[in-house]
Predict the 3D structure of the following.
Amino acid sequence: MEVSSAEAALSVSASSIRITDVTQDGDVLTFALTSQKLDSSAGVCVFRIYEDFDWLQQSLFSQENLPGLQGIIFPPLPSKALPSQSNTQTKALKQLGFLALGQDWQSYCKALEFYLQQVAAHPTLCKCKALDSFLFNSESPGKQRGRKGIFNRLSQAVEEMRKESHKDVDNFFQNERNKNTNLAALSKVATEKLLDVVMTEQKLALACGHFSTSLHLCVNQDDASAVAFSKVCLKLSDVIEAVKRNLEKVASNNLSTLGLGLDLESRYQEAEKEMLFRRTCKLIELETVKKGTEKAKANKREVLEAFQKAVEKEFNLISSVAKQEIERFHSSHVNVLKNFLIGWCEVQLNTAKEFAELYSQHLEACRNMYSE
Amino acid sequence: MSGSCGRIPPPFPDNEDQEAESDTRVLDSDEDDDDDDEGEDIFTGARSNPITPTSAPDEGDIFSEEGSYIRSDVHHATNGLHSDEEELDLFTEATVELTLTNTTSQGRREITGPTASACNTTQVPNSILKPSIVTKTTEELEEEESGDQFELNIAVTNPEKIGDGMNAYMSYKVSTQTTLPMFLNKTFSVRRRFSDFLGLYEKISAKHSLLGCIIPPPPQKSVVGMTKVKVGKEDSSSAEFVEKRRAALERYLQRVVAHPSLLQDPDVREFLERDELLRAVNTQTLSGPGLLKMINRASDAVNKMTIKMNESDNWFESKLQEVENEEQLLRRLHAAVDSLVNHRKELCSNTAVFSKSVAMLGSVEENSALSRALSQLAEVEDKMEQLHQQQAFNDFFILAELLADYIRLLGAVRCCFEQRMKVWQRLQEAQSTLQKKREAEAKLLWANKPEKLQQAKDDINEVKLSTANDKHNTWESKVSQYERDFERVTCTVRKEVLRFEKEKARDFKQHIVKYLESLLHTQHRLVKCWEAFLPEAKAIA
């Protein structure tokens, strides 16, 4: 890919961004981040904490002089992880869902990685200087706080809800809003249900482990028949142990592929929702201004009309950016889900085959033992 | 001791050997356990296939008889009472399930409801005097089956609710298929209800337990379960209860007929053959006999605490302790398996819920390929739910019920030991009575009162019949009879216990193999599911 001077900021290869390590110091997680500039083969490694990611997100939100910024679907940043001991698993699950599970924050790191890759791959956002300094400055840029973006997250205030259902002027957008509402709700539910499945798989694995250990206690060398019985129990113990490992693997596969994918999908649907909401708010603003202009007295009218024109222009820009973003989102979300589904299926297939082989070996061994 | 025979370790059909049939007096060795007292091996548990009531949409089901079982059965004569009967030179014949071949699921049974069940073959050789030490292959065995062998298959099927309301009961069909000459027909079936089974147990127990036999215990009563059925709740839990009970009754009968001396019992024959059985009212808990039983049990418990047996042989003491320890262990294991089953059921329902949520997602999705993939995903999860369901049944019927059965069987073993103690106690009492009378005689001798002396002598020799069954004339002969009884019981108990342990090891082995086979089966189907889904996922554009 040639880097033209007009797109000088497109300097990082999105796919090269990796979070390679994470260390925990009390409450703070520090991430090791490597990425590669497009025009060089050397990787750059920096260390960042969550606040830095937050800073990046806020910087993206608050870019000035970017027409139609509000029409952009911003890649969703996962919530902050609170790894302290006082945070029980249920709390963590509520807060982070799938990202709280897994070994050593693997899923969480993956999610952060995706976030950065999405930002770097976005045709508009990748040009943001903040991204560069985030990725390449050895010093953490998160020191500059207090520059809150123009928009906050969707709050659940009643007023917001009312605005959310405001009827649209454009059919395309009305449809999109409806679909998005459905999809967002459904993917959230699907993610939660998969989380339930994974939790149960883990509980089942634990129960298997418990059973397997109890079987070990049956060993008794008193006499010949006790020995025979003990052998049988130990064999069963081995089998149950294999079952346990199978379940653990299946659960972790679910977690690292489909779980992650559904989680990302669900958060992305939320991001689209936020964008659509911003546009709707602008629409409401425009309509309010229009009404005001109509009612205005002659002397104020010109001013108001000019103002109205400005708002209208803004709104149209937002709408056109939004349209592009929506199309881009549709095709990319299909792709992303496809990759996750393929990855999930492949890894589960491998695990299933692996354990079929293992069970088969156990069966052979059992039969041989039987014939001794 | 009457004829002993060797026991043949029942081979596995795929391991077609290790079928050593022994000569008389030659004990073929199982692995290593050879006790000199090891006599006949009679206790083989004919196992039935656990049934899954769920309808498997795909081919076959978990409970196909991939795991075949071999019955090792010996027709034997044991404990003195039957010593005149079949003094067989025997060898055991391990038998192969007629219906199964091997793991390629040829004998697969499509079980669609709690009606079908597996039959089991118990082969009982009849006075065959050719002891041959031969390793047999499966085919050879099957050939022989049509030859001199006699078989006995029992199945309990077709539970039907008879009557209404609180007087309703479940009636089960007990089908027998046999070539044994002692039965009137070759194939016959009768209908029995649960109390009939309990009645059978009472009768057998009354006759055989004093001899030191280990009597297989019947399935437990369950007020809650039966009430649900009576009330007519047509839900899955009452169907599950009926199925559980049906399978348990079948296993119970198979264990009973696998015990050769029990098989000879006319009550057992009557149970299998006779059309109408007298209603066994003694089995109700609150009936007169029921209460009497409870009182007896309580007094037995007290006795246990007060009898301190003078054990000449340490074997019994240590064995009893072993049995008690093992019972504890098995209870723990059973609890662990129970929790396993519950978690799997939970996984089942969670998977179903997830499947639905994915299906909804797929229906809303616009992109047609993605939408199709998502609905395929929902179907995959659906199939997995069924696999989980069946695995849960496997866990239950193969493992949990096995453990539960053995916990109760160990209780029966303990009863066996207690019976021996009772016999010993009786001996002690007779001995002390004899002693007292002798002392009285000696005193009189001393006191030189000839008339009284004669009286005392008569006393010792007098008939003191306490029960109608007493055949003894004198206290002395009584004592010696009781001594012989005790010896016999001791011997029987020893043999029974050894046989039981062997059987237990074999039983567990069989079940592990069955369990593994079911796991493997599930795993293969899982692999198929994933393989079918992969192209769908890749087709998303």
